[in-house]
Amino acid sequence: MNPELTLQLVDNHRQFLAFLDRRLGDRALAEDILQDAFVKSLEKELDVRDETSSVAWFYRMLRNAVIDHYRRSGTRNRALESLARELDGSAEPPPELRDEICGCVSRLASTLKPEYEAAIRRVDVEGAPVQDFAAEAGITPNNASVRVFRAREALRKQVKTSCGTCAEHGCLECSCGKSGPATPAKHDGH
């Protein structure tokens, strides 16, 4: 990149940052996007004839970066919102089956990371909506949805390790030693 163009872009740093900050509402994100744009502009050799066109070109580059950011975050947010709806809409087993579900599941939940255990207990055991759990945990509903999903996956692995075939059949005829400790290796083998 020619030195005059570099100087012109650096001289407009504050205006570029203000442009991004107004559109993003997040100063740190604006700084990151601006830094990335500066790097990209240095990587590209431009045949810019005058200062006006270099600044206009850079503003177009910034505008496209903002659009790309919103597209990426929009896709991610839609996926997380869909997961939150799925978690909130999951069916609860009938009361007669709920009492029969393997007692070791609760014990195994206590072996998970504390934030996973809290998510499982609040959402799955106590039946709280994901949004309520999010507010109580001080995180966004999207983050809460991800945490509940990951907690369920971690618990599923623990149950499978501990209960073996019993877990495959829904733990309805469990003989995992309901009163025993939550040790994944203990199981009488169906």
Helices and strands in order:
Elements lengths: L2 H9 L1 H12 L2 H17 L7 H38 L6 H4 L5 H6 L4 H12 L4 H8 L3 H23 L1 H4 L22
Structure description:
The protein is mainly α and 190 residues long. It folds into two domains: 3-88, Rna Polymerase Sigma Factor, Chain: A (Orthogonal Bundle), CATH 1.10.1740; 95-168, Winged helix-like DNA-binding domain superfamily/Winged helix DNA-binding domain (Arc Repressor Mutant, subunit A, Orthogonal Bundle). The protein is built from ten helices and no strands. It has helices at residues 3-11, 13-24, 27-43, 51-88, 95-98, 104-109, 114-125, 130-137, 141-163, 165-168. α8 (130-137) crosses α9 (141-163). The longest helix has 38 residues, at 51-88. It starts with a helix and ends in a 22-residue tail after the last helix. The model is unreliable at 178-190 (pLDDT under 50).
Whole-number total of structural domains? 2
Q: Give the % helix.
A: over 70%
The biggest sheet, with number of strands, parallel, antiparallel or mixed sense and barrel status, is: none
**How many runs of DSSP E, i.e. beta strands?**
0
What CATH architecture of the largest domain do you see? Orthogonal Bundle
Class of the largest domain, according to the CATH hierarchy?
Answer: Mainly Alpha
- Given the structure, what is the number of helices? 10
What proportion strand?
Answer: under 5%
Element order, helices and strands? HHHHHHHHHH
What would the principal axes of the Cα set say about the shape?
elongated
Structural class: mainly alpha
**What is the radius of gyration computed over CA atoms, rounded to a whole number of angstroms?**
26 Å
